[in-house]
Design a protein that fits this description.
- The longest helix has 13 residues.
- A hairpin with a 7-residue loop joins strand 11 and strand 12.
- The chain is α/β, with parallel strands linked by helices and 330 residues long.
- The chain is built from 11 helices and 12 strands.
Length: 330
C-alpha cells in the first residue's frame, strides 16, 4: 500500500526478542532490563501479523532482535514466514555469535540473506564495545555463510574509535572495507542514530567518511541504481575496482532518505512503528489479545497512513522514542 505521502510500504522489520548475548555499549549495555516473556509476541502472533501485512502489500521481511538466534525456534519461524503467500524475501540480522551453529538450519529454512553486525576487526576493540571476546566466532560464521553461497552483508556502525581512545578511525573502516575485497560481501556503514544509548556516542558524518574512502580508493564509484539490486533498504552502494563485494552507506543523519522510506517495524512486544524516531504506532499485541473484534489489517493500515513525512534526528529535542534500540528492533 501507499502511505499518505505516496510512499510504497512493502518492507517490515520484525524483532522477535529484546534479549541479546552481547552487551554493545550503544545498544544494550549491562543494566538494560528485558521484558517478561509473556509480553513478547508468540510466533503464532507474528505469523498472523505477517498474514495481515501481506494484505497491505508487505513483501519483504527482516527478522531482527535483540539477537534473534537466542530465541528458540527462530529458524522454524523463518521457514513458516517463507510459506506466507505474497512474501518474497525473508532475511536475518544477527551479531554472528551463533551463526556458525545455526547456519545449516537457516539454509534449510530458506533464508534469503544474512546481515552480520560487526563494527571492527580489532579483537580488543570488539571486546570493548560488545563486552565479549567473540570476534573469531563471528568471522567463522561469516566465512561459512559465504562459502555456502548465502548473500552476506556486514553492518558496521560508524563509531569514532579515536574519541573512545581505542584505535584510529581510518584504520578501523579500512580493515572492514577490505573484507569486500577478499569476500563477496557488502560492507555497509551505518550512521549512529540518537536513540537510547546511541545518544551518548558521536555521530560520524558519512559525507566526510565517503570523501576519506574515495581518497583511499581512487577508483571507487557509486553504483548505478539498476546495476545491481542489493536489497530493499536505504543503503547507497559503491564499487571499488577488483573488489568482490560492494561498499554501502546508510546515512540517516547526513543523507536523509525519508522521502523513499518503504518500511515499518514490529517490536518484540507487538508495537507497529512507522518511524524509528517517534513513539507513535499501533499496539498489535493488544489487538490480537484483547481486540474485541478489531480488524488487524485495518489497524495496521490506519497506523501506516499516519507514518510521518520524515524523522527529526537532526533535532534531538523533538525525538519522542525513549526505548533502547534492543527493545525497538535493530
Amino acid at each position: 500500500m501507499n502511505d499518505s505521502y505516496g510512499r510504497t510500504i512493502d518492507y517490515m522489520r520484525i524483532s522477535i526478542t529484546d534479549r541479546c548475548n552481547l552487551r554493545c555499549k550503544y545498544c544494550m549495555p549491562y543494566g538494560v532490563e528485558s521484558v517478561s516473556h509473556k509480553d513478547i509476541l508468540t510466533y503464532d502472533e507474528i505469523y498472523k501479523i505477517v498474514l495481515a501485512g501481506t494484505g497491505l502489500g508487505i513483501k519483504h521481511l527482516k527478522v531482527t532482535g535483540g539477537e534473534p538466534l537466542v530465541r528458540k525456534g527462530c529458524c522454524e519461524l523463518i521457514r513458516r514466514l517463507k510459506t506466507v503467500p505474497g512474501i518474497e524475501h525473508v532475511t536475518l540480522t544477527t551479531n554472528g555469535i551463533l551463526l556458525e551453529e545455526y547456519l545449516e538450519e537457516l539454509i534449510r529454512s530458506g533464508i534469503d540473506g544474512i546481515n552480520i553486525s560487526l563494527d571492527t576487526l580489532d579483537r580488543e576493540a570488539y571486546r570493548q564495545i560488545t563486552g565479549q571476546d567473540g570476534l573469531e566466532a563471528v568471522l567463522r560464521g561469516m566465512k561459512r555463510a559465504v562459502y555456502a553461497s548465502v548473500p552476506v552483508k556486514i553492518n558496521a556502525v560508524s563509531l569514532d574509535w579515536e574519541e573512545m581512545g581505542r584505535l584510529n578511525k581510518a584504520e578501523n573502516w579500512k580493515t572492514l572495507v577490505l573484507l569486500a575485497q577478499q569476500y563477496p560481501v557488502d560492507v555497509r556503514f551505518i550512521e549512529m542514530m540518537p536513540i537510547g544509548c546511541g545518544k551518548m556516542f558521536k555521530t560520524v558524518n558519512h559525507k566526510q567518511l565517503l570523501e576519506e574512502m574515495m581518497q583511499a580508493f581512487p577508483g571507487m564509484e557509486r553504483e548505478k541504481d539498476k546495476e545491481k539490486r542489493h536489497g530493499f533498504g536505504p543503503a547507497v552502494y559503491y564499487r571499488i575496482p577488483g573488489f568482490l563485494g560492494s561498499i554501502g552507506l546508510i546515512s540517516a543523519i547526513h543523507g536523509k532518505f525519508c522521502e523513499s522510506c518503504n518500511r515499518v517495524r514490529l517490536t518484540a512486544q507487538g508495537m507497529l512503528k512507522t518511524c524509528l524516531c517517534f513513539e507513535d504506532g499501533a499496539d498489535l499485541r493488544a489487538v490480537l489479545r484483547e481486540g474485541e473484534g478489531k480488524n488487524l489489517e485495518e489497524v495496521m493500515k490506519t497506523a501506516i497512513m499516519k507514518k510521518p513525512a520524515a524523522h527529526c534526528f537532526e533535532k534531538p529535542e523533538k525525538i519522542t522514542e525513549i526505548h533502547p534500540m534492543a527493545a525497538i528492533g535493530g
